[in-house]
Amino acid sequence: MAASLTHPLDLLRTQMSLRENDGVRTYSSLVRDLAKNQGTVGFFRGLIPNAMGIIIYKGFGFLFYENIYSFGFAHGVTSNKYVMEAVAAPLGSAIGQLVGYPFDVIKRNYMVANRKVSLKEMTAILVQRNGGIRGFFKGFTVNLIKTPIGNAIAFPARRFLNEMTHKQHAK
């Protein structure tokens, strides 16, 4: 739901970064140009692969995070839940990123495409243009560094806040 609300802003940011040299200098002129040439639908180009990628990334990320977290306690890796969080969160996040990243690549290419293309056609174009499956992972290394670090902080903080909230409600 949130992705569908913020997607047009992501599209505008992506378009703005690429179109500075073709006369589009302000967000208002970009909005007018997109609305005139593509209609309202143009603001949501790439939303489906974006939503698919988010669902897959978050789903796999949480699945592996919870399994790694539980495995660590079950096998005596550590008894400190925050240490286990700091291990499980980046690993789960990295696995989620690996599985979901190709959808992000497809989304970004949809956002900069100059014509309507189907998901199947966009995928074929990317495979052909980038020399196979490797093209779906361009830029992945930066995400592999950035996202697990953020999740190593966010996941333990979330668990800590949930525990504090439950303690407050139990009183």
Instruction: Name the overall outline.
Output: elongated
Poorly predicted residue ranges: none
Summarize the biggest pleated sheet.
none
The chain-level mean pLDDT equals 83
Oligomer: single chain
Helix content: over 70%
Strand-residue fraction? under 5%
Number of strands: 0
Task: Specify Rg, calculated over alpha carbons.
Answer: 20 Å
Which class do the helix and strand fractions yield?
Answer: mainly alpha
How many individual helices? 6
What's the helix-strand series? HHHHHH
- CA-CA gap between termini: 34 Å
Break the fold down into its secondary structure elements and pairings:
Layout: H1 2-18, H2 27-38, H3 47-74, H4 81-112, H5 119-129, H6 140-170
Helix pairs in contact: 3-4, 4-6
Describe the structure.
The chain is mainly α. The chain is 77% helix and 0% strand. It has six helices and no strands. It has helices at 2-18, 27-38, 47-74, 81-112, 119-129, 140-170. α3 (47-74) packs antiparallel against α4 (81-112) and α4 packs across α6 (140-170).
Primary descriptors:
single chain, about 170 residues, mainly alpha, 6 helices, about 75% helix, elongated
In short:
The protein has six helices and no strands.
